[in-house]
Amino acid sequence: MSAVIDTPTTTGTTASGGTTRAGAFGHATNLRCRACGAEQQLGPFYACFECFGPLEVAYDFPTVTREQIEAGPKNIWRYRSLLPVPDDIASIPNTEPGYTRLIQADNLARELGIHKLWVKDDSGNPTHSFKDRVVAVALSAARELGLEVLACPSTGNLANAVAAAAARAGIKSVVFIPDDLERPKVLTTAVYGGTLVAVRGNYDDVNKLASEIAGEEEGWAFVNVNVRPYYAEGSKTLGFEVAEQLGWRLPQQVVIPVASGAQLVKVDKGFGELVSHGLVEDAPYKIFGAQATGCSPVAQAFRDGHDVVQPVKPDTIAKSLAIGNPADGPYVLDVTRRTGGSVADVSDDEVRDGIQLLARTEGVFAETAGGVTIATLKKLVETGQLDPDAETVVFNTGDGLKTLDAVADRVGPAATIDPTYPAFTAAGL
Amino acid sequence: MSAVIDTPTTTGTTASGGTTRAGAFGHATNLRCRACGAEQQLGPFYACFECFGPLEVAYDFPTVTREQIEAGPKNIWRYRSLLPVPDDIASIPNTEPGYTRLIQADNLARELGIHKLWVKDDSGNPTHSFKDRVVAVALSAARELGLEVLACPSTGNLANAVAAAAARAGIKSVVFIPDDLERPKVLTTAVYGGTLVAVRGNYDDVNKLASEIAGEEEGWAFVNVNVRPYYAEGSKTLGFEVAEQLGWRLPQQVVIPVASGAQLVKVDKGFGELVSHGLVEDAPYKIFGAQATGCSPVAQAFRDGHDVVQPVKPDTIAKSLAIGNPADGPYVLDVTRRTGGSVADVSDDEVRDGIQLLARTEGVFAETAGGVTIATLKKLVETGQLDPDAETVVFNTGDGLKTLDAVADRVGPAATIDPTYPAFTAAGL
């Protein structure tokens, strides 16, 4: 299954100051500051040495063909040549995320008055959210950099993904959660047997502690802190897959949830890489961002015509999107404006409606984040921002089994009957 | 993506006595009695007209090649030529189940002292259990037979799969549940918007009512009653996938959970079909069945050397395997004895251990049924029934998110700390 690609020779710097093995990061060459453009060596770094701006991975790509990709495994590693991972990544124990369903959603399209609609359903991932993608790339970086602990602050999907990935890889994980986290969410991470640390405080307190530890402890890979440049690249695979599953072409419109905003920005980056490699035709597309009104700083900035995002205190049932100060907010504004899309938001009741609408029409049970994108899609059509005649892809990035409370007061049995045939017929079902 | 196969001309009888379209059941030709061998036309039948024995689907297969299969979609329809479904099945709205992960489980193998072990993880299916496979085939039969309602009695996975598949197909579903079913299990079916009927009574009462309705109502497809012969064929795809994912060869040993027993029997049938088509080399394999001690009638019959199974009243946390009078019990005994395997059972505490063991070693969070197979695998090694030097595949057929209670008292945070770095270092994690 290995593609015929020259082994790259670029190396990086390990946590202990040594040199990584050749090809440790595939065709990645550097980390580049997204603010000032300064470059530095690949390593466990996330802030620019010059200006403290956010870093991203830079590459010197070889020629990549559809045939090479199609010959790869049925998971994100089929795109390994476009990620900061070694060529043998698929054979190193990992959770094998990705290549989830892209389903043609004719029933939902009909209800919304859209001509052609697809749902990218990332609930089919190993721990049932898109976080398995980004964590898998972060884990590879951690391993190649000689880091020995995989860690994160989280209240949900990210915690599940980190604990599962570390278990499978046979390395230590430490996950930090608020001490008042609901019991089911504790269990779904604790079951993997890593170290779970309850922190007295709210999520902001937990996050702050994690950043402090990341700065102090050598050998720790906080997936969304000191290996974030690698981690974020994992989201490109959502864009790669959509295009490949459409038969190697770009959709005309995409609706993507916005938490930190990195996912949306990386899908755009992924589309761009496919074009520059000649893997898809260069065609215009619009990217739309979706937020819950209770945490909608990017939508607000979009409406106000601002380039920066004013932080908010989140208050929404869509917990997995509840980042009040989104790091990639400005980039989301840039991408949506540049492509002709927009950022919109929906109320918690609309989120619940969205979950039920998707389940009823397409048999996909989304978590609240999926309710946000479906409800936003509906709103974008109703307000004329999204063209109903253009082919559209909407993302569901998580699983309804994790946010059952969202629909708890809304659905249930149509009737309760005695266990007899006459009772059944009398019910007139 | 269509394979070059002649369109079959066999037709069947619809529910209203008409004729199905040509090729409605692919290369299936008849229903054949598993007891007396009598044949009858394809239709909504499950009991032999001669002896009331159980019916199964008979075929006149064309030549099927690896290339044809590999050119198909990445779901169970890549095997459509070997299923009772039309050649255009992949293009008719369905949940697109199957082609789930087969992961090499080196960590678990090491702990159990097994040379080479794989986990077939069916929790990646659309509603996170193997039931999506069988329901997808049942739905196709229902449609081709002109049946208008997809129905089942169930308390869990089957209910989820039926409601989701019907929603996506745009047909009516009616799911019957006991009226005391836990609220989370009600929600995960009700969210799809089909008709949910609570029945005053236990699961046996619900089941009996369903059979009565199936006998009385025309136009209803009870997936596991009147379209059961088609439904059951869906489990062959688990066997097909394991062989294809191993690089087109059979494993030497397989450990499969036993509820009705149909899954185990159909995996064996699937292996046999692969051999007869020349798709894999004919090599010996052993099939092992796994039950929870609280519902282990087949394991008991195996130990006692009986050919028939004495029904039991189930009492186990492995609810999805709790069938006290398993229809395919005798066939399970036949398959496991013929292949040199066995049927064993494990206590509920061992089931919990099994769930934790799999999660901790491989990052896979299984439902109780998966705990049963992992714990049984361990027991089979310890008792010398399973050869640790032979390549082994163990099935996880469901998702831990659906049976959180099983681990609720066993896992949790290692420590609770204040949100400060000194508190973190003092905890010594």
CATH architecture of one domain in chain A: 3-Layer(aba) Sandwich
Q: Largest chain-chain contact?
A: A-B, 80 and 80 residues
**Residues in helices of chain A, as a percent range:** 25-40%
Query: How many β-strand stretches of chain A?
Result: 14
What does this protein look like?
The first copy, chain A, has helices at 66-70, 106-112, 131-144, 157-169, 183-190, 203-216, 228-233, 236-245, 262-276, 297-304, 329-339, 348-362, 368-382, 421-427; strands at residues 28-33, 39-40, 55-59, 102-104, 117-121, 149-153, 172-178, 195-199, 220-222, 253-257, 286-292, 343-346, 392-396, 415-417. Chain A is globular, with a radius of gyration of 22 Å. In chain A, strands 4-5-13-10-11-12 form a six-stranded mixed beta sheet, with helices on both faces. Chain A has a four-stranded parallel beta sheet with strand order 8-7-6-9. In chain A, strands 2-1-3 form a three-stranded antiparallel beta sheet. With 429 residues, chain A is α/β, with parallel strands linked by helices. Helices cover 34% and strands 15% of the residues of chain A. Among the domains of chain A are: 102-127 and 235-407, Rossmann fold (3-Layer(aba) Sandwich); 131-231, 3-Layer(aba) Sandwich (Rossmann fold), CATH 3.40.50. In chain A, helix 2 crosses helix 12 and helix 9 (262-276) crosses helix 11. Chain A contains 14 helices and 14 strands. Chains A, B: One of its GO terms (biological process) is isoleucine biosynthetic process. Chains A, B: Residues 97-398 form the Tryptophan synthase beta chain-like PALP domain. Chains A, B: Its cofactor is pyridoxal 5'-phosphate. Chains A, B: Belongs to the threonine synthase family. Chains A, B: The modification N6-(pyridoxal phosphate)lysine is found at residue 131.
